[in-house]
Design brief:
Largest sheet: none
Helix content: over 70%
Radius of gyration: 18 Å
Shape: globular
Order of helices and strands: HHHHHHHHHHHH
Number of helices: 12
Strand content: under 5%
Number of strands: 0
Distance between the termini: 17 Å
């Protein structure tokens, strides 16, 4: 499957994940949700790891994986909390700053070439996203948490790209959730409430499954192509988040949102044509 298709699938799954987290936040704290997301993902992936015998190949890779898990744990706790504090579409919009951090980081640390055309379209896409959400000038706690999580997510993404040259996708995924389990458990201690119903347990398991699948497609995509080619398509989360927000959280869709969304689709189409021309 083409890496762009893999990334779009992951965006759809992550949008569903955000909706599940926001819904469940009325029953269990999002910080505790982040722990169960990792803990249950370990259980889901463990049989595959044992069967296929995928392990970290070197100490240097393990150090990078541990650092990636550290940034990933911070990202997860902050973003899960942000979903419960601000509208879903606003949290998604702020997360779109991640591609900007990753794009410039990949140029600085991964020696990827600067493409002025894609850079221009990426910036246009971010501006259109801000127009769609029209965030207030006043920075709320949830918005600040989402912005910090976007930066730490970019750090984790750059490390994935550096590690993915050497390690299997399952190795990356399992190592991440294994290390992130104790990282997210520490803050969850302060808000801990034992899940006391089948519904909550079912929802936590659903979050873990959707997150694991989303992370698989995202990690696979980012290991098969360059960050600069893939990250502009991260904006497809806006479409999915807007639809989910409208259906489940009564978020309105206006003309500005629609026209700006069309602008995003045009930008993404132009970028896809650019990628095809580069590969031909």
């Amino acid at each position: 499957m083409h890496p762009i298709s893999l990334l779009i699938i992951s965006c759809f799954l992550f949008s569903i994940l955000a909706a599940l987290i926001k819904f469940l936040s009325d029953f269990i704290d999002p910080i505790q949700q982040s722990f169960f997301r990792n803990f249950l993902s370990v259980i889901i992936l463990l049989p595959l790891i044992l069967k296929q015998k995928f392990f970290v190949k070197s100490k240097s890779s393990f150090r990078l994986l541990a650092l990636r898990a550290f940034f990933g744990g911070i990202t997860m706790v902050l973003l899960f909390k942000a979903y419960s504090l601000i509208p879903l579409s606003q949290a998604m919009a702020i997360s779109f700053s991640t591609p900007l951090f990753m794009y410039f980081g990949s140029i600085l640390f991964l020696d990827e070439k600067v493409d002025p055309f894609k850079t221009f379209l990426l910036l246009i896409g971010f501006i259109l996203t801000l127009i769609i959400i029209r965030p207030d000038i006043k920075i709320e706690t949830g918005s600040l948490l989402a912005l910090i999580s976007a930066f730490t997510h970019a750090c984790a993404g750059l490390l994935v790209k550096k590690i993915s040259y050497k390690e299997n996708v399952l190795t990356l995924m399992f190592s991440m959730v294994l290390i992130m389990t104790p990282i997210t458990f520490i803050p969850s201690i302060y808000v801990w409430e034992f899940p006391n119903s089948f519904f909550i347990i079912f929802m936590l398991l659903s979050i873990a499954i959707v997150a694991t699948l989303g992370n698989f497609f995202w990690t696979k995509a980012i290991s098969l192509s360059t960050l600069t080619n893939l990250m502009p398509f991260d904006f497809t989360k806006l479409i999915f988040a807007t639809l989910l927000g409208f259906i489940f959280f009564n978020e309105k869709i206006d003309k500005i949102t629609t026209s700006s969304g069309i602008g995003l689709i045009i930008c993404n189409t132009l970028i896809m044509n650019r990628v095809k021309n580069e590969n031909s």
